[in-house]
Design brief:
Layout (H helix, E strand, L loop, with lengths): L4 H26 L2 H8 L5 H6 L2 H19 L3 H4 L5 H17 L7 H10 L3 H26 L5 H20 L1 H7 L7 H23 L1
Helix pairs in contact: 1-2, 1-4, 1-7, 4-8, 6-8, 6-9, 6-11, 8-9, 9-11
Organism: Oceanirhabdus seepicola
Keywords: DNA-binding
GO molecular function, one term: DNA binding
Length: about 210
């Protein structure tokens, strides 16, 4: 069987999209190859042919949608140390929220990552090494710059975890947010509003500590 590049790309895209939705809903263990193939409208042998096995497909789904998120909303401005640390923090927070909440590209990706945090697989290990770890290190560097002479490892970790906790609350608690906070949809404008609020709250706390 000879692979055609164009058809392979199309088939792979359909499988990745279908697999992402099903993995997000059911998790790795409960998602079946047959169900994914049926949703993608491909032969049941397609996953082995293009990805090797279900676990390899799962890891590829994580990488694929992570790449889309990071390419569309890169941390480049936050990484540039010539920019003011306050602006870098605002940009970092906005990127984190867009990576996990903005639903235009992949409405299930936030759910997918939430499930991965609760039921970790090999995929989250690779993602931590490749993306999450470097992003946390970036936040550490921004918080350190904001703390100035008051910076120490413990304080940097505490403020950084607080910032990330505020960001991930919206990812991990969608039902609570809809019911009690009256936020029914997370549009781009709503996400920017949330980012500004987290930024202001966090920056004021850091500035209060340094004064």
């Amino acid at each position: 069987m000879e692979k055609n590049t164009d058809s392979k790309s199309n088939v792979e895209q359909r499988i990745l999209k279908a697999a992402g939705k099903i993995f997000a809903k059911k998790g790795f263990k409960n998602a079946s190859v047959r169900e994914i193939c049926k949703s993608a409208e491909v032969n049941t042998a397609a996953i082995n042919y293009y990805f090797g096995n279900k676990e390899s497909l799962y890891i590829e789904v994580v990488k694929h949608w992570k790449n889309i998120a990071f390419e569309k909303y890169p941390f480049d401005f936050a990484e540039d140390e010539s920019n003011p640390p306050e602006d870098r923090l605002r940009y970092f927070i906005k990127c984190v929220l867009l990576h996990t909440l903005y639903e235009i590209e992949s409405p299930w990706f936030g759910t997918f990552m939430s499930r991965e945090s609760i039921e970790p697989t090999k995929a989250i290990q690779e993602l931590t090494e490749d993306s999450i770890g470097p992003a946390i290190d970036l936040l550490f560097s921004i918080v350190k710059a904001l703390l100035g002479k008051n910076a120490n490892d413990e304080t940097i970790r505490l403020y950084s975890s607080s910032i990330l906790g505020q960001c991930t609350f919206y990812q991990y608690s969608p039902h609570i947010i809809k019911k009690h906070f009256e936020i029914s949809t997370l549009s781009l404008a709503e996400i920017e509003k949330i980012a500004d609020n987290i930024y202001s709250f966090s920056l004021n706390a850091i500035k209060g500590f340094t004064d």
